[in-house]
Design a protein that fits this description.
InterPro entries: Biofilm_reg_signaling, EAL_dom, EAL_sf, GGDEF_dom, Nucleotide_cyclase, PAS, PAS-assoc_C, PAS-like_dom_sf. Pfam families: EAL, GGDEF, PAS_4. This is Bifunctional diguanylate cyclase/phosphodiesterase. The protein is α/β, with parallel strands linked by helices and about 725 residues long. About 50% of the residues lie in helices and about 20% in strands. It is built from 25 helices and 21 strands. The strands form four sheets. The chain has an eight-stranded mixed beta barrel, surrounded by four helices. A hairpin with a 5-residue loop joins strand 4 and strand 5. Helix 4 runs parallel beside helix 6, helix 12 packs antiparallel against helix 13 and helix 18 runs parallel beside helix 20. The protein is elongated. It starts with 10 loop residues before the first helix and ends with a helix.
């Protein structure tokens, strides 16, 4: 059994090809031939050319459905098309256009594949096959050019030898070689005066009239001449070099440009002294145009016509390397706000039309010398400005771009509002790397989005450092849990009536290998964003439950057992295994549910429906206490307290700061008194956070608060200290 280019079975190799497949392939080859034959430099008739394309069409069809997918066959097809004389500049776009229009519709694999290929997948494969074909086409074209160049070199050497012999031995023999050469041949004096050219050379330049008497090669200067070509020429005519070869443009008399491969050789007399220049020229104008077209397509965005990421980065690298003679640079990174909703609601065609309209407006904003605008992603644009005032210019450019997008864009009869966020970075040339500039621009652009969008922000080193540090912590979280870098400290909960320790709140810490001990405010939001809060929260619950069991086992009497409070995040509240995980943890620790209190922030329960409350109700029914943390910081209706399955309120410290020192703020006293009265009416216990002075503790006790925690009693610390405090209270 044989395999296709990608290793997968091809239908034609296994006898599975059908007459229908053959017919579709021939129809595709016919459409392909109809598009390409008129622009191909082939001597074949249309029918002969189509016959050449049939096996190539079959290879593309097989490659489209190959398993695993492989583009090698398309690469070889590209090379084969060059062999079929498809070498004109217009041939490659016609080839690729026909494949793009007809390959999938005629050759989409169906029941020939183990897993049928959807049209979107086939389209993606077709695009990759076009890329591979273009690469093979260009590679083969370059190889042919090299072969031709080598042939020219050999012809040049032969012509030089023949010319020398002809000059020295037989003028008639030299004239035969000179006139019969298929490439342009000319002879000049050492002063550059053109002495004679053959018919092939004259045809290149538009006729023999171009080489009128007295014409000098020094007149053939062109703005696009390669650097240093004049010095190389001087070395040749002075005898310091024997030959050189260059690609050189020339102006014809009608103003058009001729590109040639020039080989210039020094002819010496019998004594070895320089005597003449022999020039051999090949017309490469068409090949040059093809290369320029391929270069343009590789460096410009197909949809908008703007430079793409490749060209932008090339220009940026030159500026950052100091090659562009720019003292400073500025970069504006623009991203459209909410563009995804346009594609989702109106479709990608409307989205493309919007992008083209946006690109036109932005192009007008960045049209000054030293400014470059590029489309680098779906709805992302980068602008580069250079010069001594680049910092100010970049800021002004950002303002112009926002102003240009202020007016709605009309697409398919709809007026669409366009908003954008822009990050602006500037600096001196030669000091920053490309990665540093783009990272700073990206961070700054997202700062603008976070600030509400439709604005620009300037890069700030401190803000960048914070984002990078946040990213570093986020990446380090999963490994930190695996390596056991987290630990728990416990802050006592004290009964205000008698000052005894009632329990403790478990507070997780991260012992970071680089940054030291980090508090929960530094990494819990990151854990919530990444989803790691669920396994981390379960780990905290397991550790806290085991610690509560250890406190119980170490108790000296049969008094009230110490309870442990554990915080729940919004992600944990909505996780389907919250109840089962909690029950499993309590059973593994041998701990009764009443020894556990789960703290839920008030804002997380504002406006939730009954389905969201069901897990908390189930836990409360099992005997687990539920505490409403940071009570008073939200804007919930107090009537919600009647329907929430909570048994405790944890009063936010902002209500009791006015009680830390005498005289006590009477307004704070009235507020706390009202909250305590309401809570007790609803049979809810009240815990106060942030107690820091004896005056504050005494006032709260007098107001009827049940428990308190804060630095007045103890800072968070190791679990052994809590047991020591409990024993001290008992004694």
């Amino acid at each position: 059994m044989t395999s296709g280019p990608g290793g997968g079975r091809r239908p034609s190799d296994t006898g599975e090809s059908t007459a229908a497949d053959d017919a579709r392939i021939r129809r595709f080859a016919e459409a392909w031939s109809r598009a390409v034959h008129p622009v191909a430099a082939t001597t074949l008739t249309r029918a002969e050319f189509e016959a050449r394309l049939v096996p190539l069409a079959r290879r593309l069809s097989d490659a489209l459905g190959s398993q695993p997918f492989d583009t090698a066959a398309a690469y070889e097809v590209g090379a084969a098309l060059v062999g079929a004389q498809c070498t004109e500049p217009e041939a490659l776009p016609a080839i690729l256009g026909a494949i793009d229009s007809h390959l999938v519709s005629h050759c989409l694999p169906g029941d020939r594949m183990a897993v049928p290929l959807a049209e979107d997948g086939a389209r993606a494969r077709c695009t990759r096959l076009q890329h591979a074909l273009a690469a093979g086409f260009v590679r083969e074209l370059r190889k042919r050019e090299r072969d031709q160049h080598e042939a020219i070199s050999r012809a040049a050497e032969a012509a030089r030898t023949a010319a020398e012999k002809a000059l020295h031995a037989s003028e008639a023999k030299f004239q035969a070689v000179f006139e019969g050469a298929v490439i342009g041949v000319g002879i000049c004096g050492l002063d550059g005066e053109i002495l004679v050219v053959n018919d092939a050379m004259a045809r290149m330049f538009g006729g023999m009239d171009f080489f009128r008497p007295g014409r000098n090669v020094n007149e053939f200067v062109h703005p696009d001449d390669a650097p240093g070509v004049h010095e190389i020429y001087r070395e040749l005519v002075t005898g310091r070099r024997d030959h050189f070869r260059i690609e050189k443009p020339h102006y014809r008399d009608d103003g058009s440009v001729l590109w040639t491969n020039l080989t210039v050789t020094l002819l010496r007399d019998s004594t070895g002294a320089p005597q003449y220049q022999l020039t051999l020229a090949e017309d490469i104008t068409e090949h040059r145009l093809l290369r320029e077209r391929l270069r343009y397509e590789a460096t410009h965005d197909e949809l908008t016509g703007l430079p793409n990421r490749t060209l932008f980065l090339e220009r940026l690298d030159k500026v950052l390397a100091g090659e562009a003679e720019a003292e400073r640079f500025g970069v504006c990174y623009l991203d459209l706000d909410g563009f995804k909703s346009v594609n989702d609601s109106l479709g990608h065609i409307a989205g493309d039309r919007l992008l083209k309209a946006v690109a036109e407006r932005l192009r007008d904003c960045a049209a000054a010398p030293g400014e470059l605008l590029a489309r680098v992603g779906g709805d992302e644009f980068l602008a580069l400005v250079t010069g001594p005032t680049a910092q100010q210019d970049a800021t002004e450019l950002a303002r112009r771009m926002l102003d240009a997008l202020a007016e709605p864009v009309r697409v398919d009869g709809r007026e669409l509002l366009v908003r954008a966020s822009i990050g602006v970075v500037d600096g001196p040339s030669g000091e920053l790397s490309r990665a540093e500039v783009l990272r700073s621009a990206d961070i700054t652009m997202y700062r603008a989005k976070a600030a509400g969008g439709n604005r620009f922000e300037l890069a700030d080193a401190d803000s960048n450092a914070q984002v990078i540090a946040r990213h570093s912590l986020t990446n380090g979280l999963p490994a930190a849990l695996e390596r056991g870098e987290f630990f728990i400290e416990y802050q006592p909960l004290v009964r205000l009536a008698d000052g005894t320790v009632r329990g403790a709140e478990a507070l997780v810490r991260w012992l970071h290998p680089k940054h030291g001990v980090l508090g929960p405010d530094q990494f819990i939001p990151l854990a919530e964003d990444t989803g790691l809060i669920v396994p981390l929260g379960r780990w905290v619950l397991e550790q806290a439950a085991r610690q509560a069991r250890d406190w119980r086992d170490a108790a000296a009497d049969d008094g009230d057992q110490l309870r442990v409070n554990v915080n729940l995040s919004p992600c944990q509240l909505s996780h389907p295994s919250l109840v089962s995980d909690t029950v499993a943890v309590l059973e593994d620790a041998g701990l009764c549910p009443s020894a556990l209190c789960l703290e839920v922030t008030e804002n997380d329960l504002i406006g939730v429906d009954e389905d969201a409350l069901r897990p908390l109700r189930q836990l409360a029914d099992l005997g687990v206490d539920i505490a409403l943390d940071d009570f008073g910081t939200g804007y919930s209706n107090l009537s919600y307290l009647r329907r929430l399955p909570v048994s405790q309120l944890k009063l936010d410290r902002s209500f009791t700061r006015g009680m830390q020192r005498a005289p006590i703020d009477p307004v704070d006293v009235k507020i706390v008194e009202g909250i305590v009265s309401l809570a007790h009416t609803l049979d809810l216990a009240v815990t106060v956070e942030g107690v820091e002075t004896a005056v504050q503790a005494e006032c709260l006790r007098g107001l009827g608060c049940d428990t308190a925690q804060g630095w007045y009693y103890a800072r968070p610390g190791p679990p052994e200290r809590l047991h020591t405090l409990a024993l001290a209270d008992a004694s």
